[in-house]
Amino acid sequence: MATAGGKIPSPGYEGKTPPMPITPAVMEFQAHSAPLGIHFYRGKAFPEPYRSGAFVARHGSWNRSTPVGYDVLFLQFDAKGNPVKQQPFITGWLSGNGAWGRPVDIKELPDGSLLISDDFAGVIYRVTYTGRR
Q1: In this structure, are residues 26 and 86 in contact, taking their beta carbons and an 8 Å threshold?
Q2: What share of the chain is helix, strand, coil (3-state, %, to 5)?
Q3: Better pLDDT: 103 or 8
Q4: What is d(CA 50, CA 89) in angstroms, rounded to the nearest whole number?
Q5: Which of 97, 25, 37, 35 is nearest to 68 (CA)?
Q6: pTM for this one?
Q7: Which of 42, 77, 115, 125 has the fewest Cβ atoms within 10 angstroms?
Q8: Model pLDDT, residue 131
């Protein structure tokens, strides 16, 4: 039985270790956040911390009393390629009045900018970096 804040059990293995080979999750996403689009960034338009990381479009929940998702996260990896941190990259599609957008997928243009599709608002956003590098 899953508990609040706990891990979802493997069916048939409650209290036991599942047989090998098994690959445990290396990074988890909140239930119902719906991470639909994941893009591994290869461009150079964004500062160094974003290079070789991944952007995740979380479409968002539709059936939770407390909505989650409706954002784009950034996943940072260490030198060995292991995910070490996830942080908000773009937020704001969810407000007290509900959602006004739902990100679906992310693509990278040749200039290193990002395109983010939104099937709720029916638009594609272009994200560019204009600050210091």
Answers
A1: no
A2: 0, 35, 65
A3: 103
A4: 10
A5: 35
A6: 0.82
A7: 42
A8: 82
Give the pLDDT confidence of 103-127 residue by residue, as tens digits.
Answer: 999 999 999 999 999 999 999 999 9
Res. 1: pLDDT tops 50: no
Q: List beta partners, residue 74.
A: 55, 87
* Residue 48 buriedness (CB in 10 A; 0-12 / 13-18 / 19+): exposed
The predicted pLDDT at position 74 comes to 98
Q: Check whether the bond before 21 is cis (ω within 30° of 0).
A: yes
The whole-angstrom separation of Cα 52 and Cα 121 is 29
Identity at 35, one-letter amino acid code: P
- Give pLDDT, residue 24: 74
DSSP 97-112: TEES--EEEEEE-TTS
At 130, which amino acid appears? T
